[in-house]
Amino acid sequence: MSNVEAESLALTCGALVGERQPTSVPRIDVLSARDVPLGGPRAMRVRRTLPQRSRTLIGAWCFADRYGPHDVLSTGGMDVPTHPHMGLQTVTWLFEGEIEHRDSLGIHALIRPGELNLMTGGYGICHSEVSTSRTTVLHGVQLWVALPEEHRNTGRDFQHHVPEPVSIDGAEIRVFLGSLAEVTSPVRTFTPLLGAQITLEPRATITLAVDTGFEHGLLVDSGDVRVADTLLSPAEMGYVHPGIDTLTLVNESDGPARTILLGGTPFEEEIVMWWNFVGRSHEDIVRAREDWEATSERFGGIEEYPGGRLAAPALPNAVIRPRGNPPRR
Ligand code: MN
């Protein structure tokens, strides 16, 4: 997915280091979603919870879009022309529909519900994403992971994994990254991370052991889900501060509730995020943009996609400066 949001063009992110006090009661900040149009020939809209003014990273998770359910016949579905990425990994996770992925590593993959597709664009990669003609409803999430300094120029990579669902206490859990409910994903990450789909039966309650050092984000797709004293509605993300060892989720609705639980150790590096790039400085971004516009080998190319390449937006006039998460209370 390509980020065309004007508001985030000069957005930079950084986590601040603060005191960490163990507690048994989770502290939750509600991150509301905003409506953002996707680029490309089709005008699909997404609901974005990361990054935003009050929260830029959760662990190394630096971008979270939820979209759908879209009736593809009326919205046209997804068609994102070839565009670059740098310094990050993309996670595509679908609830419904099918997306055809092509990248400059030479990967041509069909992305289906319940299947993790993790693309690593370290030094540089490009890809295109198009919903297939078989798709009638498109519904899922697009997530990005910032790479740590020592790995941010790593080579291109693509990993595919289909987690086996496990059922516990009225919930079905699919762990696509990291460990939860005694399931560990075999997919390699560059920082400690958690990514899982948790679907709760109507009125179900589940308590999960979580890593005390992790911060978490619970993204609600459907249903109303209570975490501690906070009720989260669809498209909202609940940010859960580090320092807890269990997390209890309550489905307060009469239908199933589907959520995505993200987690990770707080990402302590300052990063600069602009368009589809994650760097460490304004100069990193300028160079990556120039390399993309010059059709440099840095990002490679895709010959089979008929729709051409996305042009990079104009850079802001000012030097892009760091902006951090709020200090921990
Ligand atoms: Mn993309």
Describe the 3D structure.
- The longest helix is centred in the last third of the chain and has 12 residues, at 282-293.
- The chain is mostly beta strands and 329 residues long.
- It starts with 11 loop residues before the first strand and ends in a 36-residue tail after the last helix.
- A hairpin with a 2-residue loop joins strand 16 (179-180) and strand 17.
- The chain contains two helices and 27 strands.
- Strands 2-23-20-25-18-15-14 form a seven-stranded antiparallel β-sheet, with no helix packed on it.
- The protein has helices spanning 72-75, 282-293, and strands at residues 12-14, 28-31, 34-37, 45-50, 61-71, 79-85, 88-96, 99-103, 108-111, 116-121, 125-131, 137-146, 157-161, 166-168, 171-177, 179-180, 183-184, 193-200, 205-209, 215-222, 225-227, 230-232, 237-240, 246-251, 257-264, 270-274, 277-279.
